[in-house]
């Protein structure tokens, strides 16, 4: 007799828990929402000539290990 979807999901979750993992819920911005693109642009424009932002981006670039990514 085939297992129901709920039973398969529960088995998978139990296996993850047995491996030492736990489920969490995370809320992220909805990129499909009207106005999302405009808000991203607005926030980016605020940082365009920011001296600290440039320093931070340079530091991130210097310490990043992205070999093989590009």
Describe the structure in your own words:
- With 70 residues, the chain is an all-alpha fold.
- It has a domain of 35 residues.
- The protein contains three helices and no strands.
- The longest helix has 14 residues.
- The mean pLDDT is 94.
Q: Secondary structure elements and their pairing?
A:
Elements (H helix, E strand, L loop, with lengths): L4 H14 L17 H12 L3 H13 L7
Strand content: under 5%
The radius of gyration is 21 Å
**End-to-end C-alpha gap:** 48 Å
Spell the H/E element sequence.
HHH
Helix percentage range = 55-70%
Describe the main β-sheet briefly. none
Overall strand count: 0
Structural class, judged by helices and strands? mainly alpha
Query: Can you give the mean pLDDT?
Result: 94
Indicate the overall shape: elongated
* Tally of DSSP helical segments: 3
What ranges have pLDDT less than 50 throughout 5 or more consecutive residues? none
Summarize the structure.
The chain is mostly helical.
Keywords:
mainly alpha; about 70 residues
């Amino acid at each position: 007799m085939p297992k129901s979807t709920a039973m398969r999901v529960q088995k998978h979750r139990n296996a993850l828990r047995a491996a030492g993992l736990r489920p969490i819920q995370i809320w992220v911005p909805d990129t499909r929402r009207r106005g999302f693109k405009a808000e991203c642009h607005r926030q980016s424009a605020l940082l365009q000539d920011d001296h600290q932002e440039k320093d931070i981006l340079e530091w991130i670039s210097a310490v990043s290990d992205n070999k093989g990514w590009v």
